[in-house]
Amino acid sequence: MSAILPGATIGILGGGQLGRMTAMAARSLGYRIQVMDPDPSCPARFVVDACFEGAWDDARAAADLARGCDVVTLEIEQIAIASLEAAEKYAPVRPGKAMMRIIQDRILQKTWLVEHKFPVGEFRTIHSEVDLVEAVTALGGRCFVKSARGGYDGRSQVKIGFGKINVSAEEESRNAWSLLGQLPSVAEKALDLEKEISVMVARTPSGELKSYPSAANHHEHQILAWSVIPSSISVELETRAQEIARHIAEEMQLEGVLAVELFLTQDGQLLVNELAPRPHNSYHASERACVTSQFEQIVRAICDLPLGDVSVIKPAAIANLLGDLWLDHAPRFDLALAVPGVGLHLYEKHMPRAGRKMGHLSAIGETPGEAVARVLEAKELL
Ligand code: ADP
Ligand code: MG
To answer: Which CATH class is domain 193-381?
Structure first.
């Protein structure tokens, strides 16, 4: 395997904030970048050499992107396999389609995890309303139903059994099934979580592998609210989480980066929640905390360069800025930036909408707790 050296062109399928921040890191390293996105004014647009307009299943646009590239990667898992195949004719696509096929379908992903003996929470696959009614009972009455394809930030998910007193399980299941478009889904037992963590792994085509210390993640309404590196879990749990994440990356023959989201349950189990084969919101703080950011790392990984040092220099946290913050008045970034150690990262999205990730704040601290306190203090001031 030979390295793709600076000066070469990297293509990214998807031009959202992950593509944008990857492009910025790639530019620093001296690469040229082009992206493909359905939205011609996507966040990456402003920092790349070229932007091709195309939907995730537009194989022709994917081919157009790849034609001028030395390597192609992606920032969203929903790129159609036909698009990956079209791109592959012109440049290596990393991560490759075998891995993408498994990950982009929750049913296949969970089945793969179970077959490979990775720990996951109890779940059922759902193909009909009847399946769902049965699953809700079998899973103890409270569950998360997630469509097999297309979900992110809690979208395409419905919760069942969370305290609507006068509604029967059958009725809730019927509603959930129709809300999810009557499409194949998984129903997961609702777990009592002690903590959520993630582990980012990078692996090169030559087989070098590095995993970052875990991040601790706090969600609100199923969307990541804040996240901190390192996670402060026990040494035993950290070792176990690292083993799981590294083993998944090896088994999948990862080329690129992979975030492994894990649940730590109140009874001490560490379970794999889901896999994301791209930079991940919970590692945005790696730009501040670690010797090498996740964005530089994906560039190194797909270009088959030596991977960067993943150690933590100083604890760092991020807090997401959702469009809701813009609805009343323009956020007071001037006040937030006065908090020591705080940085601002905006994605140049021009239409704030409730629940839309517009940017994030970051903060460093002497301890993970201090980093979180500072980033939340700054966010309050907005
Ligand atoms: P997404 O693709 O939107 O990130 P996830 O499956 O990671 O979807 O779910 C989003 C969040 O919802 C999780 O990070 C967690 O906070 C909560 N959640 C999802 N599934 C469960 C579950 N089975 N038990 C408890 N909480 C869950
Ligand atoms: Mg998730």
So the answer is: alpha beta
Give the angle 57-60-62 at the CA atoms, nearest 5°: 70
Distance 274 CA to ligand 2 centre (A): 6
Q: pLDDT digits over 277-317, tens only?
A: 999 999 999 999 999 999 999 999 999 999 999 999 999 99
- Global confidence as pTM: 0.97
Sign of CA dihedral 28, 320, 144, 183: negative
The fold adopted by the segment(s) 122-189 is Dna Ligase; domain 1 (3.30.1490)
CATH topology classification for 9-93: Rossmann fold (3.40.50)
Closest CA to 158 of 140, 139, 185: 185
From 222, 282, 283, the mutation candidate for ligand 1 (largest count of ligand atoms within 8 A of CB) is 222
**Residue ranges per structural domain of the chain:** 9-93, 122-189, 193-381
pLDDT tens, position by position, 205-226: 999 999 999 999 999 999 999 9
